[in-house]
Amino acid sequence: MSFLSWLYPPICQGCGWPGQWLCNHCLAAVEFYPNPVVFDSALDQKIPVVAAGYFQPPLSRCIKALKYKGVQDIGTWLGQWLAEVAPVPEIDLITWVPLHPDKLKVRGFNQTELIARSLAQTLKLPAAAICEKLIATTPQAQVTNKLSRLHHLDGSFAVTSQWQKPKNLIWLKQQRILIVDDVITTGATLNCLGQLLISLDIIKVSALAVAHGQ
Known about the structure:
Elements: H1 3-7, H2 24-27, E1 49-54, H3 59-69, H4 73-85, E2 93-96, H5 101-107, H6 111-123, E3 131-133, H7 146-151, E4 157-159, H8 161-164, H9 166-173, E5 176-184, H10 188-198, E6 204-212
Parallel strand pairs: 1-6, 2-5, 5-6
Antiparallel strand pairs: 3-4
Helix pairs in contact: 3-4, 4-6
């Protein structure tokens, strides 16, 4: 057991009952999001996106405890929960929304990677870091202008050097890839990453988030 696991044993983030990150009663209170997610018409609809629930209590409390309190075990649990409740499409490989290195250094971990790797392990699928974030940008939720949101992330992401190698790229093109995120706000982040992967001639790209923020 890690120090943080000892410091933060499973306690329901909804009601405080010990033993689970969400007790059965609070799990039943999670409001599921009607899928598929439909974004602004300016976003490319070639990328099917699914969100499990709304970003509201009790689900939002789990995500906040993971991101801001560093309770990494919740990331593992969220990945397992997604495997149980989310309509995961047919996929071959799972990846996640990368963090900028500066933010990763401050936080110490990427919460979406924890969720994605747990989901992959539960589904018995491979997981890999395909993209990296090159530019530190303002969170999408803080960009209020619709047109600005669409272009806010232009050039922010790139495929890692490992996956640009010809042999790896040939293999990657044959995979049906799922991008995992914790919370969808405007959808622009997933759209930007999805378009980057589509530009590589990946046969299928889809996305899955724990919660939808709108």
